[in-house]
Amino acid sequence: xxxxxxxxxxxxxxxxxxxxxxxxxxxxxxxxxxxxxxxxxxxxxxxxxxxxxxxxxxxxxxxxxxxxxxxxxxxxxxxxxxxxxxxxxxxxxxxxxxxxxxxxxxxxxxxxxxxxxxxxxxxxxxxxxxxxxxxxxxxxxxxxxxxxxxxxxxxxxxxxxxxxxxxxxxxxxxxxxxxxxxxxxxxxxxxxxxxxxxxxxxxxxxxxxxxxxxxxxxxxxxxxxxxxxxxxxxxxxxxxxxxxxxxxxxxxxxxxxxxxxxxxxxxxxxxxxxxxxxxxxxxxxxxxxxxxxxxxxxxxxxxxxxxxxxxxxxxxxxxxxxxxxxxxxxxxxxxxxxxxxxxxxxxxxxxxxxxxxxxxxxxxxxxxxxxxxxxxxxxxxxxxxxxxxxxxxxxxxxxxxxxxxxxxxxxxxxxxxxxxxxxxxxxxxxxxxxxxxxxxxxxxxxxxxxxxxxxxxxxxxxxxxxxxxxxxxxxxxxxxxxxxxxxxxxxxxxxxxxxxxxxxxxxxxxxxxxxxxxxxxxxxxxxxxxxxxxxxxxxxxxxxxxxxxxxxxxxxxxxxxxxxxxxxxxxxxxxxxxxxxxxxxxxxxxxxxxxxxxxxxxxxxxxxxxxxxxxxxxxxxxxxxxxxxxxxxxxxxxxxxxxxxxxxxxxxxxxxxxxxxxxxxxxxxxxxxxxxxxxxxxxxxxxxxxxxxxxxxxxxxxxxxxxxxxxxxxxxxxxxxxxxxxxxxxxxxxxxxxxxxxxxxxxxxx
Length: 750
Ligand code: GDG
What we know:
Elements lengths: L1 E2 L13 E9 L2 E5 L5 E5 L3 H12 L2 E6 L10 E3 L2 E5 L4 H20 L10 H21 E10 L6 H8 L4 E5 L7 H4 L5 H8 L4 E4 L2 H15 L3 E2 L2 E5 L5 E8 L6 H9 L1 H13 L5 E8 L6 H13 L8 E8 L6 H21 L7 E4 L5 H10 L2 E4 L8 H9 L6 E5 L12 E3 L4 H13 L2 H17 L2 H16 L7 H10 L5 E6 L20 H9 L4 E6 L4 H8 L6 E4 L4 E3 L11 H20 L4 E5 L2 E5 L5 H18 L4 E5 L2 E5 L5 H12 L3 E6 L5 H5 L6 E5 L8 E3 L5 H24 L1
Parallel strand pairs: 2-5, 2-8, 5-7, 8-9, 9-10, 10-13, 14-15, 14-17, 15-16, 17-18, 18-19, 20-21, 20-28, 21-22, 28-29, 29-30
Antiparallel strand pairs: 1-4, 3-4, 6-7, 11-12, 12-13, 22-23, 24-25, 25-27, 26-27
Helix pairs in contact: 1-16, 2-3, 3-4, 8-13, 9-12, 10-11, 10-14, 17-24, 18-24, 20-21
Bound molecules: GDP-alpha-D-glucose.
């Protein structure tokens, strides 16, 4: 426990941060001990664990409510993370949090399992509080910072932030489902909420279906064009801003759960729990916040019927139900507690014996260690949610079971069901189906249990919370953040470049002049490219080159270059520089290696669907774009391994869905150097989109300009979104060069 910061009136931080996380609750809360002193206690939720390392290394701040009403705190540092507390009054908690968040949005987004209540004063408080969070985030964020806003309590924050700080990169993650339009349309403020969310660059959801529901709602209510995960939102001056709405299934720190489970004292505790329950053959477990979305009543009903019809007996099976207290001042939660406890009491009254209790019911929160011991003790885990964004309990159970035993019964209405397909999947509304699933789980042979759990564990460990947060932040900062249009700084650099005596404009083809397509022979430059290239060719002291990984013949075929364009194919192994002929030379030994290489790759691509090979003068490329990710990975692995042994001296180059092996090493960097010499250029402009273009960016010199097309790490100094921007950039070079020529002519004439 760290000591409490002194309460003050202001909450503006002194410094600013490059990564700001915004959530309703802070990862720490204030705790008052018996002697009245206050301190901060970390609430070790999954989100903190996931973001902590990143927050520490990237100078991060966390904006949120500290869990106590009507108190202001200065920003302070806790365990390496800067904490920016947001003040909420008691009445705001009632209207914004308990009201609009938990009694309007929560039931609406969970398929109206409980009726949502719509109150205008709740909405007004929601707007007011969202504004306060947005203001706090805006003052904590450094110029160009990344801000990651979390969950349904703060859906207006992205728009408010964007309006205040257009320089920020803004992400939003919705932890709960996003409902189908037929349900969403009920919301009196449905347009305002969508607009609020669309202020983000990237909006993350748990399931593919949630992202789809969101995009459909945007189409229905705003009519903005959507394509796949992209939504084009109108921006000032007739421009568009691209927003990405995509699913990022959240997960847990699986290794940390397993580590706890392996501790001897926790295993001992698990044994103790079984003994205290009277050593039943089967322990079934439910762990939920006491919430009407979790289907606790459905689970109890199914269990009760199995006891009543004699399929199960309390001597053999006990159900442990942890129902942790939640939202205890919200109407439907008060009623739910009565309903559940009545059902538990009835069932225990009907079936428990002096030595065996049917349901061991606990309305408490437990320490994580105790939860892990319960998971270890449970033979069958029951997750019967009627609707759930993800359900982390299901993943925690799997992570803990390093013995690979235990059966997970999982509702198909929980997001986790999209990934955890080896669980026994159920429809919780179908009580007979739930009963059958419970009986199947109780009687499942050990071999089958182990097989299923092994597959489940692979899923949970491969996609842990670290993978989740890195993939969200990567998409946010690399993809969604590439702004449309031509950056002003690029225009300035091009003006400067155009003053040189001799300029080389070298352009990659696929992904730079032409969008990527499934069949390489179908690639064509976007409209306007040819005209822009011609304008450059018409200017004195300007040469244009196309540089490609393709064989030169293929490059010529797809790019249809004007005669004056210089060409470099196969990463520079072949060139055509102001001659009608292609230049290339390979020695006999290299030709033999080429044959051996072709035999290996032909065999691999012949046996794996969706892959094919492309012959190049000094090598071969294995393409995997049309294969499933698993098959693509298998093909790449086989190629690497076999050729690594057979032909260890080959040059290997990874691209987007392609791997290339060459008997002669050459890179686009070598190609660019050769072109620079041939053109006698003082300054070079190079544009490319692929990892192979990084070799060209690497040989650029001071005053040269590198332009990366699209997302991803790059050495290039400038970036545009896609090939459709490139003719505009070429046009700018031509304009600037023409202006310089006119200036020079005027000077010569004067
Ligand atoms: C929302 C979405 C989504 C519960 N009781 C105790 C306790 N817990 C822990 C569990 C688990 C967490 O609380 C609950 O997470 P869930 O995912 O199951 O559900 P929600 O609280 O509804 O969470 C949900 C999640 O956000 C993340 O995006 O998956 O769909 O509704 O970690 O272990 N932990 C301790 N004692 C308890 O008594 N220590």
